[in-house]
UniProtKB/TrEMBL annotation:
The keyword Chloroplast does not apply. Residues 10-64 form the HTH lacI-type domain. CDD domains: HTH_LacI, PBP1_LacI_sugar_binding-like. PROSITE patterns: HTH_LACI_2 (PS50932). Pfam families: LacI, Peripla_BP_3. The keyword DNA-binding applies. This is LacI family transcriptional regulator. InterPro entries: HTH_LacI, LacI/GalR-like_sensor, Lambda_DNA-bd_dom_sf, Peripla_BP_I.
Amino acid sequence: MGRPGPNASPTLEQVARAAGVSRATASRAINGLPYVSEKAREQVAHAVEVLGYRANQVARSLATRRTGSIALVMSEPGNFVLSDPFFARVLRGIYSGLSGSQLQLVLLMTNEQDEDGFARYLCGGHVDGALVVSLHGEDPLPSLLVEAGLPVVLGGRPLVRVDAPYVDVDNFNGACLAARHLIDTGRTRVATIAGPADMAVGMDRLSGWRRGMAGTGFPTDAVAHGDFTVEGGAAAMRRLLESHPDLDAVFAASDLMAVGALQTLQAAGRRIPEDVAVVGFDNLDIAATASPPLTTVRQPIEEFGRTMTWRLLAQLSGEAGLPPSILLQTELVRRESA
C-alpha cells in the first residue's frame, strides 16, 4: 500500500480498495456513520492514514445525506414474482408501511445473468436500506449487504447465520395445526406437498407437519416437494397418488400448490373432501374461490410486509432496543375442502 503520485489526490475508491472494503463501507466509516464493524473502521482508518486521504466538505456532505430510497429485493425471477399473489400482498403491506415516510421503493428481482451487478448496486450507495424476501439456500447477499454497512431486514428466517434482523410467520405451528386438523377429522393416511427444500419456509412447514403427525401412529412417508406454484402442486400430487394411492388427506404448504392438488385429485376421480381432504397454507383470495373452497392456514401477509418495513425504518432512524427477530402468528381457516 503506498501513496498516490505527487499530483494525484487519493480517492475514496482507492481508500476502499486499500482497506479491502466496499466504497459504501469506506464512506460510512470516514463519516462516522453506523452499521460498520470495528474491524472495517480500523482498516479504513489505516488506509486513510497511509494514503493521506482528506475528504472535502462537499463530498462529506453528500456522503452523509440519504438517498430517500429503500430496496425491496425479491430473490426470485421476475416472471415468478409478478405472477404470484403472495408477493403482491407483501408489496401492498410494504407500501402501507412506507405511507408518510416520503421514501421511494426500488424493486429488484433476481437476474441470474448479473448477480454480481445486483449486489454492487445495493452496496453502491444507491439506497438507504434493503428488505430481502424469499431467500434460497446459502445465498450470500445478506452477508454482503451487512458487510457493506447497508441496513437490512430479511423476510423469513435465513438458513445461514447472518447479523441481520428478520421477520417471519410461525410456519412450524401453522403446519402443525393443519396436520392435527386432518387427524381430528378422522384421516389416517395424510400426505404433504412440501415447499422447496432449500428454503426455511419449506423446511419449517414440513417439520411442523411432522410434529402434528407425531404420536398418532400413522405413517409420515408420503412427502413430495413443490415450488409454490399451481403447476408444482399438481405435479407433486400426481407423484403422491402414484406412490401412495391409499392417501385420504393432503396438506399443501401453499394455497397455489393446494389448488394444483385439487385439480389433480379431481382429474383422478377423487371426491373432495369425501375421498381426500385438502388443506393449504396462506389464505390467499384463491382459497375462498377454489372448488371446493379451501381450508387453509392464514398467515398475515400484508402485516408481514408492514412489519418488515417498520423494522427497517426504525433501524434507519436509530431506535434502540429493536428486536432481532419478529414472529407473526398463524391460524386455521376452516372451509369445505377439509
